[in-house]
Amino acid sequence: MENQAQSVQKNAKKSQQFVDYFNQNIVPRAQELESTREKFVNIVKIWSIIVAGITLVLAIAVIPPKITSVEALYAPLLVIAIGCIVGYTPVEFIRRVFSYNSKKKILPSLLSFWGKFSYIPPVNFYVAIYSAIKNKTGVAGFIQEITKDKTSNISINHAILKRLLDYNDVRYDDKIVGTFNDIKVELCELETAIVRRDSKKGTSRQTTFKGVIFSAVMNKKFKGMTAISNTHLDTNMLDHPRIGFDNFNATDILNIGKQLIQTAYDKKQLIQKNNELEKEEQEIKELPRSKEVRLEDPVFRQHFKVYSTDQIEARYILTTAFMNRILKLGEAYKWKIKAIFINNNIYILIDVRKNWFEMPFFKSSIDINNYKEFLNDFTKLLAITEVLKLNQNIGM
User: Fold this and answer.
1) In contact, 264 and 270? CB cutoff 8 Å
2) What is the predicted pLDDT for the residue at 228?
3) Which of 124, 126, 181, 389 could anchor a disulfide with 96, C-beta 3.0 to 4.6 Å?
4) d(CA 38, CA 231)
5) What are the DSSP E strand ranges found in the chain?
6) Pairing of strands 183-197, 169-180
7) What is the tens place of the pLDDT at every residue in 158-196?
8) Nearest-angstrom CA–CA distance, 394 and 88
């Protein structure tokens, strides 16, 4: 992976070109943000010192003269906990808002160095508050903004994704979309989870994936479906992904309700819809089932399990050279990856739980060295198109 990434990351000529590009195109934009960033950082430092000082004084004040039991420490610990919340929330608000504005201003130009890329920012709690305050839209504006996170235009195909992951809740973050090496690619940072409700109306949330998804449209359409995973997969889930109402938002449900009301008054439409559903169900039943593919390579079998509805096609995909590339990819991301080939799409899921595509906040926005983590993440992901040679016919 490291060697393959050189063409997008470490080639000496390309690196110098990027430095020149950064100085000419990014620095002028970053300079406009730098004074704002410095003001925000100073506010954060002053606020942190004030809150820490007040919290420390109050915590000492509530400590009893004689500590006779552990319970005597509850009051000072509670004060410290409240102080942490009071100190953290405004700091995180400032950081998130600055990150949102800086990414919108800088990332489109930064990504243009590699090709036609665009950046789609997320909508979260902090950004929704900021937008409502900025636009003076109040509570209604906040609700409108926060619901955008549920109706994101991120083009994740859940019918494909749910073959690999079990979830009923999705949280989107940053998205980058564009074309590289003549391949249309999308990089989407997201988290999936199973939310359960118990009899006492309590909820629990179990994260099933948190990382980045690389998706691409390939030059070849697959006849079957082939999946690669670092863990065991349920073949029933692979063949019949559970797509439920958990993925629908309020607008979707209202539209479905309208369609049901309309068809209820049209007997022909109702019969036609029923026939279409029966036909679709029959087609699903007739589809070939996924089976585990037993490959000869012992190293590959040690790290990955392979499932496919077409054993022959799976072996065409997983040639010796291709398996070596997947192994390099797995090694680069500590083997926490899954992949699926279906129709003409490839999805690669990298379950590395960190904040991807972050911009500097506590460091200068005009220093190229402070963008190293972002550049390293982005160019490694771009290199997947070269590592897996997605723009080439894979011999099928």
Assistant:
1) yes
2) 92
3) 126
4) 45
5) 116-120, 169-180, 183-197, 203-217, 225-229, 291-292, 305-308, 337-342, 345-350
6) antiparallel
7) 888 888 888 888 888 888 888 887 788 888 888 889 888
8) 51
